[in-house]
Amino acid sequence: MRNLKRVKWITVLVIAGVGLGGWLWGYAEGSSDSLYTALGVMSNVLNRVGSEYVEEVDLVDLVYSGIKGMVATLDPHSQFLDQTNYGNLMTGTRGSFEGLGIEIAIRNGVLTVVSPLEGTPAYRIGIRGGDKIVQIEGESTAGITTAGAVEKLRGPRGTQVTITIAREGEREPFDVTITRDVIKLKSVPYSFMMDDGIGYVRISQFSEDTTRELETALDELSREGLEGLIVDLRTNPGGLLTQAVAVSDKFLERGDLIVSTRGRKIAQNQSYYARQGASGAYTIVVLVNGSSASASEIVAGAIQDHDRGLVVGKRSFGKGSVQTVTQVGNGCALKLTTAKYYTPSGRCIHRDNWEEDAETEVALSGDEEERETFHTEQGRDVFGGGGIMPDVVVELKRLSDLALLLERGALFFSYATQWTSRMGEAAQIPEVGDEIVSEFRDLLVAEEIEFEDEAFEAEQEYIRRAIRREIADRLEGHEAAVRVAIVADLQVLAAVDLLKEANSLTELFEIAAARQADLPGDDE
User: Fold this and answer.
1) pTM across the whole model
2) pLDDT per residue over 358-389, tens digit each?
3) Is 335 a catalytic residue?
4) By three-state DSSP, how is residue 161 classified?
5) Catalytic residue chosen out of the listed positions 232, 256, 305, 473
6) Is 294 designated active site?
């Protein structure tokens, strides 16, 4: 009897809550009767389950599960958040948390890595944007929500979780065991001068301190003679809209439109403009890839549309929807997609069709007349279809099977840890000669790693650089490791080459257009 009364109370509360909100009567002309009928069905089901199911169930959990299922039918980014998941969401824009350090989303119904956060356990062990997490601790992720996945993946520092990854180009899924750690949310992890007045700044995410951290980095670079700037937004999953607007403001002219949002309600139609404007006259190249999402796409699109600089790399992720988070009681919240982002030229950033791959994207290949074309402030063509299309597409080389094996097994990390421990306080970043390579090879043999001698010899350059990178990381931190690795980064090298060759923005655009025209077509 007690359980039955509780069922009736919950049913009345659900129906009354809809009515009191005033929405039901304005739902749609002539459709309120069918909605009332559907609510009646829900009431009957809840009543039956609560009173007759073979085992007693937690009715609150049952209602929450129903709400989660309802919201899950909308789009991958809308979620009902219980107390735990709402708390997790709020930590994502400030402070720190304990976990793996990956941004995840549901893409085509599969739990997918958008990008790993730099310097985190997931990043160090080689998790990549686009990896599909098909199992967590041996349990299938089919049907899981992002909130549910976060709950399983996060945990106390020092604990481990095993995930099964399906990766494009790999024949079979493989297991990766990751040790959780404290994830510190630093937005600008490093910045430095390269050569010929070219500065490099990495923005890994957009959180509460992003603009402040960027200002500090730009001030330092300016004191060192900044003339051209590379803004690296690759594998940046996004974050706060306010910070995307503030960062864009640092590069645009006062009064420039940065981004607009459009939704069903008038209140969702907003436009955001630069209020202060750029403090420097340096030329900019923005790097993006398939894991650049949301706020990073806003910044890249604004710089591109206002002809403030070039975008180089690969087509961005296309997460251009606005989620409004509203508390709905009992410590719970509703994260609901309420609008979409549009760049200054009118391009919708959001991409709905995730089934397109690099070989079939109309926006980067195919006939000109099939492309949705927009125009920048100076009349340059830019293309829609979701995401931000680079002005210059630069492919990265695929790692060999051996390199993948060594990176995935954290073997460079293991060797660097052993080497630095053996060398002690006197250790300095070495030039990796034959002796170190031989020691590394011995480590592989000791670990019973199977490899062909020919493959090992063919990867000598990569192996030497990767060993030096990891030793640099152990001795001087992640920025030192990046400085080692960046000399072989084809997208960064392309950006440096463009900035060196061009004496003005106009020249930069002309060179970029010529290079893009020289790229092989989709038939090659």
Assistant:
1) 0.76
2) 433 444 444 444 568 999 999 999 999 899 99
3) no
4) strand
5) 305
6) yes
